[in-house]
Amino acid sequence: MSERDPRQAKDPAGSQAAHKKTSEDHPEPSEYDEQSERDEYDGRDEYDGRQARGRRQEHDGQGDQDERDGHDEQDGREAPQEDGAQVSTGSEPAGAIPELVIISGMSGAGRSTAAKCLEDLGWFVVDNLPPALIPTMVELGARSQGNVARIAVVVDVRGRRFFDNLRESLADLDARGVTRRIVFLESSDEALVRRFESVRRPHPLQGDGRIVDGIAAERELLRELRGDADLVIDTSSLNVHELRAKMDAQFAGEEEPELRATVMSFGFKYGLPVDADLVADMRFLPNPHWVPELRPFTGLNEEVSSYVLNQPGAKEFLDRYAELLQLVAAGYRREGKRYVTIAVGCTGGKHRSVAMSEKLAARLVAEGVETVVVHRDMGRE
């Protein structure tokens, strides 16, 4: 990145090409975002702090006049401070504070793909921005005269020497009244090891140890941030297109809904979804698998759905659980939680959980909750 006139720093939209690294530097992978993660754990700090230095150089055609007059033309503007903590642009009024999304999570879990998806949706994306500079980025966006209304920042262990400053930056943003959300990309150890091995790259924190050692260290480092996340997406079994669909479902709407729900069917024999907020077990109902004429079909089939819903206790469960979700949804709204993942499981994730997920999602939609249905394990048998 070449050094630029500091006056251009007032217009982040004008330097968008310099900052939007994710679309140009991370190629599309064949299996879940593995190739695009190469740059994510190659140890480079793409955002090298040059923006924070902000050296003042006036080349506006008045240099000769300045030499004759013996002074520098300042035009009423202060130079940014060396540590990047304050950016003053004179009398230019601040506009509306941009909406902010912080993307973080495990290396190899798909941060780059999530960032590229937001970029495609019109967000101003900054990859690997040191956390200490996030408030400055938001301030510059507020001075862009509405050109930068939504900012997404990728924060990860490549900037681990800055990572301790993240908590302080988040507190600063909250004090300023900035609407900010944290999206955390999660994945199983097995999936992460497979992705690192397929691209033959080391984990950024493994040092002289193994990949699993780096993953364990990163998990511990990010534990608190994961707990504070507004949206956790488990990418263990997702490909790049499925992750894009999840991000689109959450961020593509022009108006932000009060609450978005994902209803996910799954099979217990394939493991619990790690991103589930609530889990319901449908194994108390008879399994259509043991009915020969229903076995080949899934819970999307009308006959299978009717069979499941007509079992003793099925409709009563649906009614009571829908009422429970109304209480939970109201509490989530009061607490400012925007996303909830409801997992509905059966043995194989093919019949009972699929049928009940569809009915439960329909109830949520009727209650005004924007809902996405995902059948995680349907078709695995």
How would you briefly describe this protein structure?
This protein is α/β, with parallel strands linked by helices. It contains 14 helices and 9 strands.
Description:
It is a single chain. With 381 residues, the protein is of the alpha/beta class. The chain contains 14 helices and nine strands. It has helices at residues 16-19, 22-25, 50-53, 63-69, 111-120, 134-142, 160-163, 166-175, 189-199, 211-228, 240-251, 302-309, 314-334, 352-366, and strands spanning 99-105, 124-127, 150-154, 180-186, 231-234, 260-267, 278-281, 339-346, 370-375. It is globular and about 60 Å long.
Measured between the Cα atoms of the first and last residue, the distance is 51 Å
Query: In sequence order, what are the helices and strands, one letter per element?
Result: HHHHEHEHEHHEHHEHEEHHEHE
Strand content: 5-15%
Which class do the helix and strand fractions yield?
alpha/beta
Q: What Rg is obtained from the alpha carbons, in whole angstroms?
A: 25 Å
| Approximate helicity band | 25-40%
The number of distinct helices, counting runs of at least 4 residues, comes to 14
Beta-strand segment tally: 9
Global geometry: globular
Main sheet, how many strands, which sense, barrel? 5 strands, parallel
